[in-house]
Write a structure and sequence with these properties.
Elements lengths: L4 H15 L15 H13 L7 E13 L3 E8 L2 E8 H4 L1 H10 L5 E10 L5 E12 L9 E5 L2 E5 L5 H6 L1 H7 L1 H23 L3 E2 L5 E2 L11 E4 L4 E5 L4 H9 L4 E9 L11 E10 L3 H20 L3 E4 L2 E4 L5 E4 H9 L9 H10 L10 H13 L7 E7 L8 E2 L2 E12 L2 E8 L4 H14 L12 H8 L5 E7 H9 L20
Parallel strand pairs: 3-5, 8-12, 16-17
Antiparallel strand pairs: 1-2, 1-4, 2-3, 4-5, 6-7, 9-11, 10-11, 12-13, 13-21, 14-15, 17-19, 18-19, 19-20, 20-21
The structure holds one RNA strand of 75 nucleotides.
RNA sequence: GGGCGUGUAGCUCAAUGGUAGAGCAGUAGCCUUUUAAGCUAUUGGUUCAGGGUUCGAGCCCCUGCACGCUCACCA
């Protein structure tokens, strides 16, 4: 452990404490109240007109110190808030107060016991009668100054460098309270999603992360190897194929919240591992799923924010149902000026796009071209929550066809703030059709496309036992958390986002 | 992967090719109701790494690394 000068000074204090018979890392604390409990207790006593002294023992991290000769004000912070400590030579004696001044630094975890009082300026405080070190910090917190004014935390020169914040998230969290709030909101989001689905009689399940055959999405997987079994395994790119097997088995409403892994580029909305929610709802279809989605997101907004509107990137988003519904064909016509319905083949559509001066990636299928039009023209315009529906068949191999339209499937995606939030369809449950779709995919991707999917024979076996009609749904939970916490990058809602390795060590 | 930008003290930031600085933190002294903890003094640097140009490089050039923005990729 390489120590800088500031850290060496603190280590010297540790040695001085031990030499004086005090343990800087005692095994146990003697904390009786959180800061919030202590304050509440005192305010209640005050309101009741009680003269009985409120005695507490509180613990927390030392966040500010104001040394005034023979007295000292300090703030400690625990997981519930902040509390001012008032240390006087009158109660503590000169020796103890000097010990506090000399051995206690900002960032240390300490314990203080005493009587709750209100100081002359009116701040609820602990008049300290005894104190102890709970855990000495060696590295100073990367916040120069931090205080509470009118209940607001004011920071002067805090920790802002994104790289340091992500690599040392512990320091970021310790020093930036709004970061802690983001992750509290994220946790509430996940809890609310679970509660909503539980209340709608969905069963939460867990399916394999290590899979011998990956599928359910078009993405490159991470590959790993089981030494004993001498077997290649893939980290899942979706839960879909396993969850639908469960509907075959009679678990007709299931969901899973967990991690997906995709071996692709990173961006403000992509991380190599991300949290996905998928649910499958027997006897439903994509229209019913749309309605449930609206209700679910509105429910989450209520639980997390207490309201259904949120300002994201300066724009107010309204999550009140119903969301705007826009047929994909119409949306592309409105924004790109091309009616995909007039071009049933990839060649014809590519021709129409070139005529408009749009760059066409050679070898693209019709579906990929439509997806490109969607991404480039339509997606940026979808700010308010919108369901795009009816998607091209060749990029949706697990979705059921739209009756009467051989090129189109019953699929929708939810877009908010120009970003894809969720993806759902009426699930294909015809095993023979499914098999031919797999084969179709295999041919379309044959020319060395590494998104080509292996045939999953066991999945077909499951389908052949019969799966009830159902609507399936997938949503990026990180992206929902971004929207609800007004964060413009996924890294801000991941505690430990993926960063490149450093060259040291 | 491409383009643009950034990298200087623990943190936030300065510094025409000419002595590397400030605020806060730290250290020392003074101070019995503070709240950007006041006054006084003071310590602290592999300027991301490695090469080059130059009498002289934080600054200019090259290579590499990391981060940010952006484009590409990504159902």
């Amino acid at each position: 452990m390489e120590l800088n000068d500031l850290e060496k000074i603190r280590v010297a204090k540790i040695e001085a404490m031990r030499a004086a018979g005090m343990e800087p890392y005692p095994t146990r604390s003697n904390v009786t109240h959180t800061t919030a409990e202590a304050i509440r207790l005192f305010e209640q006593a005050e309101a009741a007109g009680s003269t009985e002294p409120v005695k507490v023992s509180v613990g927390g991290r030392l966040r500010s110190e104001r040394l005034m000769g023979k007295l000292c004000f300090a703030h400690i912070e625990d997981g519930w808030g902040r509390l001012q400590l008032f240390l006087r030579v009158n109660e503590l004696g000169e020796e103890a107060l000097n010990r506090f001044r000399e051995q206690f630094d900002l960032g240390d975890f300490i314990q203080a016991e005493g009587v709750m009082i209100r100081t002359r300026t009116g701040e609820v405080s602990v008049q300290v009668q005894a104190f102890a070190m709970l855990a000495k910090a060696i590295t100073p917190l990367p916040a120069a100054k931090d205080e509470v004014v009118d209940g607001q935390v004011v920071r002067h020169a805090g920790l802002t460098d994104p790289e340091t914040r992500y690599r040392q998230r512990y320091a970021d969290l310790a020093v930036n309270p709004e970061v802690r709030e983001v992750f509290r909101a994220r946790a509430k989001t996940v809890t609310a999603l679970r509660r909503f689905l539980d209340e709608h009689d969905f069963l939460e399940v867990e399916t394999p992360i290590l899979q011998p055959i990956y599928g359910g999405a078009a993405a490159r997987p991470f590959v790993t190897f089981h030494n004993q079994l001498k077997q290649n395994l893939y980290l899942r790119i979706s839960f879909e194929l396993y969850l639908k097997r469960l509907l075959v088995g009679g678990l007709e409403r299931v969901y899973e919240i967990g991690r997906d892994f995709r071996n692709e580029g990173v961006s403000f909305k992509h991380n190599p591992e991300f949290t996905q929610l998928e649910f499958y709802w027997g006897y439903a279809d994509y229209l019913k799923v749309m309605e449930l989605t609206e209700q679910m997101v509105a429910y989450v907004c209520d639980e997390v924010l207490g309201k259904r509107t949120v300002v994201y990137d300066g724009q107010e988003l309204d999550f009140n149902p119903p969301w705007r519904r826009l047929e994909l064909r119409q949306g592309i016509l409105d924004t790109a000026g091309i009616d995909i319905g007039l071009y049933p083949t990839g060649e014809a559509l590519a021709e129409a796009m070139r005529a408009k001066g749009i760059n066409v990636k050679p070898g693209s299928t019709r579906g990929k071209l439509i997806d490109a039009l969607l991404s480039d023209f339509l997606e940026p315009t979808l700010i308010q929550p919108t369901f795009l529906y009816n998607y091209p068949r060749d990029i949706s191999p697990l979705a059921k066809g739209l009756p009467g339209d051989p090129n189109t499937v019953e699929r929708f995606e939810g877009y908010v703030a120009g970003m894809e939030l969720c993806n759902a369809f009426t699930e294909l449950n015809d095993p023979l059709d499914q098999e031919s779709r797999f084969l179709e995919m295999g041919r379309a991707y044959e020319a060395g496309d590494d998104e080509r999917h292996p045939m999953d024979d066991d999945y077909l076996q499951a389908m052949s036992y019969g799966m009830p009609p159902c609507g399936g749904f997938g949503m990026g939970v990180d992206r929902l958390a971004m929207l609800l916490t007004d964060q413009r990058t996924i890294r801000e809602v991941l505690l430990f986002p993926h960063l490149r390795g450093t060259t040291e060590e």
